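As described in the Methods, two query proteins were run sequentially through the folding procedure within a single session, without resetting any intermediate state between them. The first query and its resulting structure tokens are shown here.
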Amino acid sequence: MSNLLHFLVVSTGGTIASGEGREGLTPTMTGHDLLKYVPSLSQLGEIDVHDLLFKDSSNMSPLDWKRIAMFLIAQEKRYDAFIILHGTDTMAYTASALSFMIANFTKPVVITGSMQPITQPNTDAIDNIYSSFLFAAEMIRLRQRGITIAFGGQLIHGPRSQKILSHDYTAFTSINYPHLGHIEKGEAILTHRPSLLTPLFHQKEYETFELETSVFLLTLFPGFRARYLEYIVNMEPKAIVIEALGLGGVPHLGESLLPPLKLSQDLGIPVVITTQCVYGGVDLNVYEVGRRTLKMGVISGKDMTREAIITKLMLLLPYVEPYNVEKWLHTNFCDEITLP
């Protein structure tokens, strides 16, 4: 028995655990309830289950990321790998946050969920759970660690993950980064390994560290009013993330957004420019509409995902002065950003 792999399943709720309630689907099932639908898992090793949360992932908060991180750390030495069952809507945020918080975690962590409750006839939950264990077992064999998402037969690096489809069973993909692996003929094939996994914090700091949630995200469109951005700046959030156009274009003719950006700099509020495009990232040096913002002191989000930018800012802002945010946001901690 001692040679068997030892897994811990951490259940947090989500669609995978949902049943019909008075107001619609809501998480009701325990982790043990879910694993009964995948009896073949017993062949892969010993499995323990812990029900940490019962939440629709839309209700997940940064404090929940901290709770998950601290729980994993407390259990790290007892298990070979960890499977987190999670709702899909904010799964990429959790995966990104955990990647930054516990990048030096020594065991594989695989997060999964489903687009349909496990009780539905055509659910993807059973395949996703089983695939998660296959990926985790292969990661153990290859001594590969990191925070990952297993979904639709693919293994995705946590801080590069994003949900791009609202209904399809292949809802998640890897953004500007190779997939880590896939399922082929019932086996987990790993094809890529993150080259860098460095935490933002030392583990002893986890009990006391803060997460700054005063971060504002806005999306530009033709006709966006400058006074709306000025109003947001005057509310003095700790950082603003702008999903700009194309390579990072911000209008400066007509409704020019440059004056509010100048105001943000005067108030010491970091502004990060990312793109509405799913792939490719931003390059503020190509067009005038990008270079003008650089002159205002904005920060390029480069090829990071929205989720990686926001969670990274939440973790950095309590500890980094505004003039140093760009330096640390452009530091690669866990292959979340592509640098020259």
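Immediately afterward, the second query was submitted; its sequence and tokens are:
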Amino acid sequence: MTEYSSPLPRSPLLSVLRQIGNTAVTLLVTFIGLLAVTFIISRVVPIDPVTSILGERATNAQIEQTREALGLNDPLWQQFAIYLGDTLTGDLGTSIRTREPVLQEVARRFPATLELATLATVLGVLLGVPAGVIAATKPGSWFDQITRLIGLMGYSMPIFWLGLMGLLLFYGHLGWVGGPGRLDAVYQMSYDFDITPYSGMILLDTALNGRWDMFANAFSHIILPAGLLAYISMAYISRMTRSFMMNELGQEYITTARVKGMPEYRVIWVHALKNVMVPLITVVALSYAYLLEGAVLTETIFAWPGLGSYITDALMVADMPAVLGGTVVVGAAYIGLNMLSDLLYRLVDPRARV
């Protein structure tokens, strides 16, 4: 008589680790693809890196010597292999404009963009999620119409126009907020010499150093650009939250909860919103990634010394190592946020762990 043994149950931990490993491999392949795209761009743009370095008066001997030193005479596959190895080890090249390593310059600029995008995303979530939930519970009401109108305006209005109008009204005429930049000039000097820069994010650093006067000044400078980006984020988040909630409110478990006499606020804000949070995590992560990579115009208008303005300034002077290095960092942040959202998705939804 043949005995059959039932298969051993799969360990939840091993399943999660396997999925994390698969996700990491996918993201690594995606990152290599990003590097391939940036490498191709660096080779097809009508800008000669040697001319950018030496100038137009360089002799043919100097040009050939520099091309040999940069490896531009090697086969393309070999150039890409070197580029891939340098990038994976943290070498993003040297800026033609400043002659400094691009990674160091990006490290100085990125905290400003991170601070701006983080505050904007927090404000967008705090305003967008409740607005979307309330609009979904009262479809066709005046609140729903206003929420949809605000969302449509957020999609339609150019961010540079909103920034200019905001500066003209709230800074120029009313004086409610600080002007361009992260700090007033007197506070900027004090920040450079008296503040211990734990993170490079001024709000956090000034709070940790107990300089609340400087914190207030920094907040007056960041609130307008962060508010404008939060408006764009809120328009997207509120629209998606409304769509997700309307779908959940039509499910049978919601009807059953209401029939059993469960309070309406628990039906909406506990049961329905809990299931909405699963896809909403991805929405918030994508919105955050968009602000990290899409704040170029906002940083330019408000003279915000972040990564977006760094890439823009480098592009204006054909500093391609700086442009490509900044692009790689933004792409890496986007990929990292996608991986984080995937991990949070698996934590929130047990079905995704199978």
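The two ends are 34 Å apart (CA to CA). We note this only descriptively and draw no conclusion about the first query from it.
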